[in-house]
Amino acid sequence: MENLNSAVETLVHGSNTLFLLMGAVMVLAMHAGFAFLEVGTVRLKNQVNALSKILSDFAISALAYFFVGYWIAYGVTFLQPAAQLTHENGYALVKFFFLLTFAAAIPAIISGGIAERAKFGPQLMATALIVAFVYPFFEGLIWNGNFGFQDWLKAEFGAAFHDFAGSVVVHAFGGWLALAAVVLLGQRNGRYREGRLVAFAPSNIPFLAAGSWILIVGWFGFNVMSAQSLAGASGLVAVNSLLAMVGGTVASLLVGRNDPGFLHNGPLAGLVAVCAGSDLMHPIGALATGMVAGALFVWAFTATQVRWKIDDVLGVWPLHGLCGAWGGVACGIFGQQALGGLGGVSLASQAVGTLLGVTVAFAGGLLVYGLVKSAVGIRLTKEEEYYGADLSIHKIGALSQD
Question: Less CB within 10 Å around the terminal CB: N or C of the chain?
Fold first, then answer.
């Protein structure tokens, strides 16, 4: 009997490790989606830089999170013998891998906002500081209960802040960090002439669409496998993610008047928004959440570029910052039993937690990018920007010059 129990326990640990490893690989693959979404959106002279940033940012993020960030968020260090790290089939290591892919999404989000005029080295410096210190602080606050914030919310409003897969912890946080960076960086040269927007057309719609599809597919690993165990996997999370994605697509298609840029970002807006409450909402609530997010993205992207003259190249603040914040609040609305959800969530807690995430991210972005700007500068020269980041930084263009 003892041998049977031991065998069952080994099988459970092995299954959970494999389940989470598959999720980590799926989210890792999403970084190719970030890369190609940016490659397709920026001008031809900045495509190599877009690809180089995403891969380099991931590498720096991995080092920062492994040695510092994960310890700040969860109090876990890997500076111990390998024999201890492989306990329970190395589940703790795979959990780190999975959460690393979330942490590395933060600079990948920021990359799209600051494209075409940011220096390469200083951006990597900012990535290291954000993933080592700023993001883990808020991550640990919400997902590990650090500093008693979640306990306070539960005592005050009856429920802790609920963010199942990171609408606020990852997406809104990354989007508001990006807004701070974009504001400090300033507009691209020639983007506005006599106060009017000058169109910079996407360089490659097929690449943009491919990036969107890669992100869509990987997102099911992002959401479903946030359960972090095979027993916790939920068909509700999968279907809610699907319907939110569809809702965002339909809304962006209608409100965006068939624009392919809006169309291929609409499903991402829906997926961003549903992350927080995907394990609680009724599928119709998830559909509504996605539709609001898709319309919100189109409106906010247009207002950001035209009315407010904030040169956020990929619209990462509307997509991740605003739609992520909406997702945090939507969880408190559509997660209620009165609207078909599973309950156990407080709208007040969702509003407070979302507001805190937005505040910490924007303040952290101003601090990090302000320091880097003062120390080494964060913007290419006018000449470098004119010739493009590809030739100015990487000394090669995206296409051969035969």
Answer: C
Q: Residue 218 corresponds to which tokens in the numbers above?
A: 């990987």
Cβ atoms of 219 and 57 closer than 8 Å: no
281-318 in b/e burial notation, b at 16+ Cβ within 10 A? bbeebbbbbbbbbbbbbbebbbebbeeeebbbbbbbbb
Query: 182: helix, coil or strand?
Result: helix
Residue 37 and residue 208 in contact, taking contact as beta carbons nearer than 8 Å: yes
SS3 79: coil
Place of tokens 């201890």: 84
pLDDT block averages, 10 residues each, the chain of length 402: 71 89 97 98 98 98 98 94 80 95 98 98 98 98 98 98 98 98 97 93 96 98 94 95 98 96 98 98 98 98 96 98 98 98 98 98 98 98 97 92 54
Q: What's the predicted TM-score (pTM) here?
A: 0.96
Q: 245 phi and psi, to 5 degrees?
A: -60, -45
